[in-house]
Amino acid sequence: MSDNGEVLVVATRQADAIRLCDILCLAGYRPHWCPDFSCSERLQSNGKLATSIVAIVLCHRVQAQPTGTGPSGINLPSELPNQLRCRRIIAVSDCTAEQTVVSLLDDGAHHCFNLLESSSVLQVRLEAALRHHGRPINDILTSGNISFDLLKRRVTHSGFVVDLSPKEYELAYYLFSNRDRLVENGELLTSIWSLPAGMETRRIDTAACRVRKKLKLTAEHGWELKRQRRLGYRLVRTH
């Protein structure tokens, strides 16, 4: 069986943990189970494990559990994406309501899948998400005075680290990877937020505004991030 790396499974219920670990084993990954978010401390204290973990799978439950079975689920701590910048966070939830899905994605999850789907379908979805976010061929992407470290998920401007949120980083990297072409709003929603293309675009405009300000993407600094109303964004080099 192939060894695609280690995945941390965060689930309060043992049955959920066993199911997700079995699915990941079948997909060629080595899972580790944590019942809560002490996983961030575990990663920081174990250097070998920290470098081998490729993703975190969070089991999120909102449906009521039988009395006496413990907590019904766990939410994504706001600080976790920043603590674990170089790892993918995949939420698997028993609730598919739009508000819940959007909340998990806004909090830093890169994907949100339905926990109630069959194990075979869930395995295919997890494999696709992990494969899509596998180790890049090149670890560094540099355009002019802006450089992306794809392993550390960190961006520098003229040699100085710029503090971007996980979604801001992904948006910036996607725009630089597709510079000089119009990237439509629908493409950004599906590629960055894993949301349907037809949803409202306010989250894109907010993130783009912050990226423009933090990375100084204005004509006088050599870059220009242009918003084309109702269409999308285009990043161009000005000099």
From TrEMBL:
Residues annotated as domain OmpR/PhoB-type: 138-237
GO biological process: phosphorelay signal transduction system; regulation of DNA-templated transcription
Alphabetical list of Pfam families matching this protein: Trans_reg_C
One GO molecular-function entry: DNA binding
SMART domains xref list: Trans_reg_C
Name the UniProt record assigns to this protein: Sensory transduction protein regX3
InterPro entries from the UniProt entry: OmpR/PhoB-type_DNA-bd (IPR001867), Sig_transdc_resp-reg_C-effctor (IPR016032), WH-like_DNA-bd_sf (IPR036388)
CDD domains: trans_reg_C (cd00383)
DNA-binding region: 138-237
Keyword terms: DNA-binding
